[in-house]
Amino acid sequence: MPVAEPSASTRERAADALRALERMGTKRNRDGMARYGLVAKHVFGVSVADIQQLAKRYGRDHALALALWVSGWYEARLLAAFVDEPARVTSAQMDRWAREFENWGDCDTVVMHLFDRTPHAWKKVALWSGREPEFVKRAGFALIASLALHDKTAPDAPFAAALRLVAREAHDERNYVKKAVNWALRAVGSRNLALHARAVALATTLAASSEPTPRWIGKDALRQLATPATRKRLERATAGSRRAGSRR
């Protein structure tokens, strides 16, 4: 479905935002971004912190977010993630934006600040985790990690299923995919004791692999998960939840 033409007021707000981003951009920031693999066709060179401050000026505005995204500017697309309205984001919009991710920065920012708050998030986990394009697949696993961190009320079942996706895709050696798979494994394993046990078991299996990519994913995850500090934190959280439940 084609995106509706923005209204005149939305076009002016988008133009105003682009002018602000252009004024804020610096060569120093552009050079720094390039060093960290944040390469895009159109870049002003604005820090994420400054983009977040700018987002407060515009507030939540779904139409503005769509207009910012189609501008093609990297920072405008990050701003779109901060001003869009999660409840109004459609499944088609998510697929379209995911196909247009240019680097890990726009991928992770959009996922962590917008997509994981939409009603379509879990469906996209299942869909994108099996897709071939590098940043679409990364988005699937970044969604798992973001949901593990942010969705405090979700049951364990979808996260247990997500660990099966981790096991399935742990052989993808592309840098930004394997790092996202590792991120998802660590995030799920840090959620509670039951998921921690499942994640540690999977990480141990991966760490014993003869293939370098799953071996790295498993060993790196175990460096965080298989520590007394992590287990103690989860035990304290579990005990706190039980006490809170008993007072209800």
Summarize the structure.
The chain has 248 residues and is mostly helical. The chain is 71% helix and 0% strand.
Output the keywords:
single chain, 248 residues, mainly alpha, 71% helix, 0% strand
What does this structure look like?
The chain is mostly helical and 248 residues long. The protein folds into 2 domains: 77 residues, no CATH class; 152 residues. Helix content is 71%, strand content 0%. It is built from 14 helices and no strands. α3 packs across α5 and α10 packs parallel to α12. The N and C termini lie far apart (48 Å).
- Spans of at least 5 consecutive residues whose pLDDT stays below 50 are none
Strand content: under 5%
Order of helices and strands: HHHHHHHHHHHHHH
- Taken from the alpha-carbon principal axes, the silhouette is globular
> Radius of gyration in whole Å, from Cα?
20 Å
SSE layout and pairings?
Blueprint: H1 8-24, H2 27-35, H3 48-58, H4 62-70, H5 74-83, H6 91-99, H7 104-113, H8 121-128, H9 134-150, H10 157-169, H11 175-189, H12 193-207, H13 212-225, H14 228-246
Helix pairs in contact: 1-3, 1-4, 3-5, 4-5, 5-7, 7-9, 8-9, 9-11, 10-11, 10-12, 11-12, 11-13, 12-13
